[in-house]
Amino acid sequence: MRIVIAEDDALLREGLALLLRAEGLEVVATAGNPGDFLVAIDAHQPDVAIVDVRMPPTHTDEGIVAAVEARRRQPGLAVLVLSAYVEQAFANELFSVGATGLGYLLKERVGRVEEFLAALHRVAGGGTAIDPEVVGQLLARTRPDTELSELSPRELGVLELMAEGLGNTAIAERLFVTEGAVHKHIRNIFAKLHLSPDDQADRRVTAVLRYLEK
Questions:
Q1: Is 104 left (phi over 0), alpha (psi -120 to 50) or beta?
Q2: What number of other Cβ atoms are within 10 A of residue 175's Cβ?
Q3: Which of 103, 114, 173, 192 could be cross-linked to 123 through a Cys-Cys bond (beta carbons 3.0 to 4.6 Å apart)?
Q4: Cα distances (Å, whole numbers) of residue 97 to 37, 65, 80, 194
Q5: What is the pLDDT of residues 127-162, one digit of tens each?
Q6: What's 142-213's CATH class?
Q7: What is the DSSP letter of 25?
Q8: C-alpha span between 176 and 205 (Å, rounded)
């Protein structure tokens, strides 16, 4: 796995590089600003980019903008975004271009090495990884009059774990239920969100995006 890191905090940037190299992963370049990051993407064509949300010069959304541009330049590039805070608008902006191979984690998650590496590998494999804290805060902001209000507490729990990027087996293990029960809950979620099997979009991804948008 070839990785480019974009992070303006030099200590965190080099710490990430050391951690990943110690795990046998190839960090081909690091960058402290969006311009250098995009140059590295063009030069190295990595498999994964790890990008900070807030970067110079204004420290607002430069990282998100650069991540979207990197995906435009290199379709299929997996991107794992790191943020110090839950920023719903930035999460929505990132996932609006498609959820395949994308992740959004709080920086504190990096200290939990196994969780961080699992998220990185999930994203590199084309999956989705969303920080549980992000999911929790977005759930707290959900208005009761949305279509999500039609879901049962168990179905909401399943959808929350789907948003974290867990597959059916992992969801079953987390909830201590059978995979058959998980399949049933997911069918109910699709039905209540009016997601038809004939839809061209991936229904699982669409359900997660609606969950995050609300």
A1: beta
A2: 16
A3: 103
A4: 19, 11, 14, 22
A5: 888 877 666 555 455 444 467 778 888 898 899 898
A6: mainly alpha
A7: -
A8: 23
Any idea which residue has 């995906």 for tokens?
A: 71
Look-up: residue for tokens 């795990």?
Answer: 23
Rounded to 5 degrees, φ, ψ at 103 are -140, 155
Class of the 2-132 domain?
alpha beta
pLDDT digits (tens, 9 = 90+) for 70-90: 999 998 899 999 988 766 666
What is the percentage of the chain residues whose pLDDT exceeds 70? 83
Q: Where in the chain is the domain with CATH 3.40.50.2300?
A: 2-132
Query: In percent, how much of the chain has pLDDT > 90?
Result: 42
Give the span between the Cα atoms of 133 and 109, in whole angstroms.
10
pLDDT tens for 47-75 read 999 999 889 988 888 998 899 899 999 98
Residues of the chain with CATH 1.10.10.10: 142-213
How many Å apart are CA 49 and CA 168, to the nearest integer? Answer: 27
Cβ–Cβ under 8 Å, residues 30 and 13: yes
Q: What is the pLDDT of residues 172-204, one digit of tens each?
A: 998 888 999 999 999 999 988 888 776 555 788
Residue keyed to tokens 């699709």: 190
Dist CA 166 CA 127 (whole Å): 9
